[in-house]
Amino acid sequence: MTTTPGVVTGPWLWLSAASYLLLLGGALWRLPWAVLARERGIQHLLFGAAVVLTLMWLLRAGISPGLSIHFVGMTTLTLMFGWDLAICAGSAALVGLTLIGREPWQAFPTDAFCFVALPALVSVAILRLVEWRLPRNFFIYLFLCAFLGGGVAAVSGGMTKGVLLWVADVYPWSKIYHEYVRYLPLILFPEGLLNGIIMTAMMVFHPDWIRTFDARLYIDEQ
Question: Which structural domains are found in the chain, ordered by start?
Answer without folding.
Answer: 11-220 (1.10.1760.20)
